[in-house]
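Notes, Module 5: Reading structure tokens.

Key idea: the token line is not a picture. It is a compressed description, and you learn to read it the same way you learned to read a sequence, by spotting repeated patterns. We will look at two proteins. The first is printed below with its tokens.
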Amino acid sequence: MLNDPRILFIAFLGGLTPALLWLWFWVREEENKSEPKAVLTMVFIMGMVSVACVIPIQKFIQANTTGDNLQLILFAGAEEIIKIIAVLVILYKTKYIDEPIDWPIYLVTAALGFAALENTLYLIKPIGLGQDTISLLTGQFRFLGATLLHAVSSGIMGIALGISFHTSGFKKKIHALVGLILAISLHSVFNFFIIRVKTTDANYFLEIFKVFGFLWVVSIILMLLFEKIRRMN
């Protein structure tokens, strides 16, 4: 399955497309001064690369901890921290983050790169088995849910860093810590409720859309915060 270029291409296209659509949506939030396309591309790619770093960490967590809830929190924490590192690898001590809005833009970009490869990995198996309907549903749900989750959770962290842009020292660290805790909490809550919904449930689709509805409400709040951060510029 992994040796079939056609399957890999279709899965990659299916994983990449929703991430790019969301990226276009969020990048439009900074209308006055768009970020350099080359830098955004590097951050997006680094977000994809970071999936390879998260997988062994999650395997280690799974092998050395007990309790599903604890593992979900640790999984979410690993992903959120790695996405932040992906941005810092590219932008640390550069001139590209010169406004508060830059933090959420770059963190969302890395998150969507992460989601693009994660989506691809989820799609390979059903596509390889010829389960076209399942592949389509998986892609749609990840577009509506998991892809947006990554963008929103990293966006929360970016908002926290953006708000603290003109501060320093202890206050900046507190903002960063609160942003990280909120990002991990949202990620963990989403994963917890998504896992509880079983495909055999009579109200499967209703429960799925309830979870996604909650995520959309958080997304709307994040958009309002984007506007606040932009005005800080």
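Here is the second protein, with the sequence above and the tokens below, as before.
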Amino acid sequence: MYAANRRYEGIDQSSVDELSRRVNDGLIPKLSKLPGFMGYFLMEGGEGIVKSTTFFDTSSQADESTRVAAEWTQDEKLDKLVPNAPKVTVRKVIAHETKAPVLV
């Protein structure tokens, strides 16, 4: 398993809710259709930072997710919400554990 980590800087704190909504409505559905998709997380990093992590089976699939995310950001004209290109790393996951959510 591989993780694509993206660190976005210069995010206006008042825009985080809108960014989150747009990611949930638009980006996550696109990423989840890619081969090898295993999960996506968007996290507040504080001080104008938002981070995302996407999990895929292979490093090339994780790299493709970064291309898709960049294309989506451009297509959605999010330059005011996301003023700077992210710092991206793709790394092999060497330990993990997940728990299925409990449905009530």
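Summary for the second protein:
- The longest strand covers residues 37-46.
- The longest helix spans residues 16-32.
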